[in-house]
Structure to design on (291 residues):
């Protein structure tokens, strides 16, 4: 009982500390961004112009770039992460092959983002330029699509690792019940394993989304850093994180600096909203599965 009370007290104290840290971070961003907040108000979110010379700042271009690259990266990475999870969670749960693949997944997660960015510039940009030439679009090489490919590689280990673990947690009795009624291996995976593990798989996908939203260096090196709305997924652009990384040290005045901090505030709010929504969805999905 004493150990249980101590554990609960520790968790409660940790939660309060986390809440205080988040509130402090939010307050710091609001204070730093106040000159821009009071000048541009909500128009900051919808203005597509970013002109430090004229003192006209808007975040719409960067919000669009952030959402496009992040969700496009999810579309690219999720099928591969699910395939890896099924392979290691169902077909090769143990053995040398499973250990080797897990090592490579862990290595992908540990590579610094700047290394991914440099690899993208040296290897991926020429490949994308060739694809763009074949499709008849302007062969920039850098752009939204290239940034999404880099992000897809970077976030794949997170969603794959969590999906593998939750698939392994599916009780073997449920699998045996599926086989007992005549279901094939594929039918058992689709009808039994996925419904049971879907909340955990979804949690991994959302963790990957949070990683993609805030990625900075790799995206900055391959996205093109153009201050205009992208016309296609192959167009150069910018994200909230990349424009902060490329311009923060070059802020030419107090309003410019405040606008950069407001970009960070917008990114913080977007990430918080997505995490809150995902938390509710995971709770609901988990309740439906175990009902």
């Amino acid at each position: 009982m004493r150990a249980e009370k101590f554990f609960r007290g520790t968790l409660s104290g940790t939660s309060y500390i986390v809440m205080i840290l988040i509130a402090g971070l939010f307050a710091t961003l609001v204070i730093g961004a106040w000159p821009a907040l009071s000048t541009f108000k909500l128009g900051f979110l919808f203005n597509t112009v970013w002109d430090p010379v004229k003192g006209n700042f808007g975040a719409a271009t960067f919000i669009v770039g952030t959402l496009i690259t992040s969700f496009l990266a999810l579309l690219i990475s999720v099928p591969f992460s699910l395939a890896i999870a099924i392979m290691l969670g169902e077909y090769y749960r143990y053995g040398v092959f499973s250990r080797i693949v897990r090592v490579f997944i862990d290595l992908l997660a540990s590579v610094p983002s700047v290394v991914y960015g440099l690899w993208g510039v040296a290897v991926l940009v020429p490949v994308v330029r060739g694809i763009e030439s074949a499709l008849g679009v302007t062969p920039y090489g850098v752009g939204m699509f290239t940034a999404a490919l880099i992000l897809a590689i970077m976030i794949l280990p997170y969603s794959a690792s969590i999906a593998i673990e939750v698939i392994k947690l599916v009780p073997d009795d449920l699998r045996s019940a599926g086989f007992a009624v005549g279901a094939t291996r594929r039918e058992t995976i689709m009808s039994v394993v996925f419904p049971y593990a879907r909340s955990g798989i979804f949690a991994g996908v959302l963790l990957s989304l949070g990683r993609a939203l805030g990625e900075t260096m790799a995206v900055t090196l391959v996205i093109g850093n153009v201050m205009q709305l992208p016309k296609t997924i192959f167009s150069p652009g910018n994200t909230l994180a990349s424009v902060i990384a490329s311009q923060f040290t070059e802020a030419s005045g107090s309003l410019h600096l405040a606008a950069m901090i407001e970009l960070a505030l917008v990114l913080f709010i977007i990430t918080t909203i997505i995490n809150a929504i995902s938390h509710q969805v995971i709770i609901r999905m988990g309740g439906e599965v175990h009902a």
In short: The two ends are 30 Å apart (CA to CA). Confidence is low (pLDDT under 50) at residues 287-291. The chain is about 80% helix and 0% strand.
